[in-house]
Design brief:
Length: 316
């Protein structure tokens, strides 16, 4: 028994699966589906979260490659298959039509607008970072300041490192503890709400300086971070920093009746294979718990979601 196919919009084409987002999760999903002879379209706005990062790390066979090169290699792998297509376009609306979906997208960088039908939709748009409001933070983000300790700490060996985050940050103590084995000196800027005093005492035993003062801004000279300035005007010398931002899933392109459930962190609620409460709608990569992860894990989640979508399409 085959699953009914959604009607094709009069103005567009029809795909077995449309994937919204062309990062590691979305492209890996597309590759798996293409190899199962599914007709697949990836629509990507080409504004990745890590666009400011100079190198991606920890991805087997692609360690230290610039993120844009990693994504370009992924697109090339997908487009090797005649039944797969990748286009730069901003998805503006996904709506239900019959048993499937209609996906509308605005072309970017000279690509055409699209209106296409799909039996299934995989959302792999990642998360938007919400940084503390420090005027100079963006100037050093991706070079001296990073958000992923697992990804980038190795490159900061023997540096003087600062750790800080948004007001609601919950894992700053863990981040500081990780960095003790990396940096020559670690300073954690955190309120007692962010890091309770019991945890702060344990960190001090590890050699971490716990500074309760509020940060005013990061400071530096040209491309080099040189310090963290607190509201009292004092500058603590550092050469690198790790920031824990807030994160936000942006799913405004989904019609109201297609909005998936969210958990307390704002992440999409899905099963272990990316199935949401909406029939035929999947979410994968950083959109689902536990949120931001190293790239290779996001890619793995994309593969798993693709396998689920393919299996669901068989009707068994």
């Amino acid at each position: 028994m085959t699953t009914p196919t959604a009607p094709m919009p009069a103005t567009g084409e029809h795909y077995d699966v449309v994937i919204v987002g062309g990062g590691p999760a979305g492209l890996q999903a597309a590759l798996i589906l293409a190899r199962q002879l599914r007709r697949v379209l990836v629509l990507d706005g080409n504004r990745p979260r890590h666009s400011a990062t100079m190198e991606a790390h920890g991805f087997l066979s692609r360690d230290n490659v610039p993120p844009n090169e990693l994504r370009a290699a992924g697109r090339e792998s997908v487009e090797h298959y005649d039944n797969a297509e990748v286009q730069f376009a901003n998805v503006t609306r996904v709506r239900r039509e019959g048993t499937g979906f209609v996906v509308e997208a605005k072309g970017v960088r000279g690509t055409p607008d699209r209106v296409v039908g799909a039996d299934r939709v995989i959302v792999a748009t990642g998360l938007k970072e919400l940084f503390p409001p420090f005027p100079m933070l963006r100037a050093f983000y991706g070079t001296c300041i990073h958000s992923c300790v697992v990804c980038d700490a190795w490159n900061k060996q023997d540096a003087r490192i600062a750790v800080f985050g948004v007001k609601g940050a919950k894992t700053l103590a863990y981040r500081a503890a990780q960095l003790v084995r990396i940096g020559s000196h670690v300073t954690l800027f955190a309120s007692e709400e962010q890091v309770p005093e019991d945890d702060a005492a344990r960190l001090r035993e590890l050699g971490v300086v716990v500074d309760r003062r509020e940060i005013d801004d990061v400071v530096g000279e040209r491309a080099d971070l040189t310090g963290i300035r607190t509201v009292d005007g004092e500058v603590t010398p550092v050469e690198a920093a790790f920031v824990l931002p807030g994160f936000e899933a942006q799913l405004g392109f989904l019609d109201d009746d297609l909005q998936p459930d969210r958990d307390a962190e704002g992440l999409v609620v899905a099963d272990n294979f990316g199935r949401t409460r909406v029939q035929g709608l999947y979410a994968t990569g950083e959109l689902t718990a536990p949120g931001p992860e190293v790239l290779i894990i996001s890619a793995g989640k994309g593969a798993r979601t693709a396998i689920a979508a393919h299996r669901d399409a068989t009707g068994f």
